[in-house]
Amino acid sequence: MNKLEFEELYDRYLDTSQIKRKYLDIAYSDLSSRNKFDLYLPDEGECFPLIIFIHGGAYIKGDKGRYQLKPALKALTRGYAVASLNYRFVDEACFEEIVVDVLNAIDFIEKHCRDLCIDIKRIVLWGESAGATLALHASLRYKDKRLQFKNDIHIRAVIDWYGTFDYSLNHEASFAGSLLIDCHKTLLEKLFQTSKERLVYRLQENSLKPFIKETKTSYFIQHGTDDAVVNIKQSEQLYKYLTENNKDCIFHRIQGATHCVDDFSNDDNLENIFNFLDKIKKTL
Questions:
Q1: In degrees, to the nearest 5, what angle opens at C-alpha 197 toward C-alphas 259 and 231?
Q2: How many domains in the chain?
Q3: Strand order from edge to edge, sheet including 218-224
Q4: Is 193 helix (H, G, I), strand (E, B) or coil?
Q5: From start to end of 18-65, where are the E strands?
Q6: Distance separating alpha carbons of residues 203 and 75, to the nearest angstrom
Q7: Does residue 284 belong to any structural domain of this protein?
Q8: Contact (Cβ atoms closer than 8 angstroms) between residue 49 and residue 119
């Protein structure tokens, strides 16, 4: 995929006119005009398990209504509600603040669960690329004092599509071959609001490793072997740490898949994901 094709994918909006029950542009925080989410509900029923979809875009682009949401919306026919949220970009917030955006959205949904028809014991985060990275941090770090997030939340599972587990592992290799290679050095400095000299320290400061031991969340990880944006070693390392700590997790290396939702959206693969979620749902 060339740069133009990549950008066109991220700019394509999804037609959701056929979905009868939906609530758009719900504000979950007043910190930014981007702090909104859309909620889609199955045609019938009340009190649904919820999938919160978090789009990617390198913290500089993307939107809750764009095409990346399409595979998650197929969960509506399986009895899941689907929320798709926006968050602040690097021009408005640092990485930790963006993670808090995700936590604030979850907290808002839990506090308004009756009005929104949501079962708060069955909340799943599903992210792709940067969205998957945010899902990982939200699920593992919500008690991290450095985030200054004081509320308790419930995240039952995470679907991680080609996210970055730890920028400090090898931030050169993480972006090897990236379409963002020209800006990746300054992108991380902006994202973590630091100088080139202190960047490694800031990346280490945001490591997820110390939080894995305590998590009760289940993880379903998928990464393409031909991903030229985020190195598959990121997901391999995440799986390694989760299994070493005896956590509930599944890791699929998708042969030939690149850094693109379309490579993960075939019916067989989505069936694997929904079977995993159905199994999780029944354990409560």
A1: 15
A2: 1
A3: 21-27, 36-41, 81-85, 48-54, 118-128, 157-161, 218-224, 249-254
A4: coil
A5: 21-27, 36-41, 48-54
A6: 35
A7: no
A8: yes
Strands 249-254 vs 218-224: parallel, antiparallel or unpaired: parallel
Q: How far apart are CA 222 and CA 103, in angstroms?
A: 23
Residues 12-55: tens digit of each pLDDT:
888 999 999 999 999 999 999 999 999 999 999 989 999 999 99
- In terms of Cα–Cα distance, which of 147, 155, 98 is closest to 121? 155
Token reading at 19: 């979905």
Instruction: Tell me whether residue 140 is in a domain.
Output: yes
List the structure tokens of 211: 């939080």
β-strands 36-41, 81-85: how paired? antiparallel
Q: Three-state DSSP class for 9?
A: helix
Q: Which amino acid is it at 241?
A: Y
Evaluate whether residue 131 is within a structural domain.
yes
Range of the domain at 99: 3-279
Q: What is the CATH number of the domain that holds 77?
A: 3.40.50.1820
CA distance to 27, 200, 252, per residue, from 207 (Å): 30, 11, 23
In a domain, 181, yes or no: yes
**What are 238-249's pLDDT values in tens digits?**
999 999 999 999
pTM: 0.93
Burial class from Cβ neighbours inside 10 Å (0-12, 13-18, 19+) for residue 220 reads buried
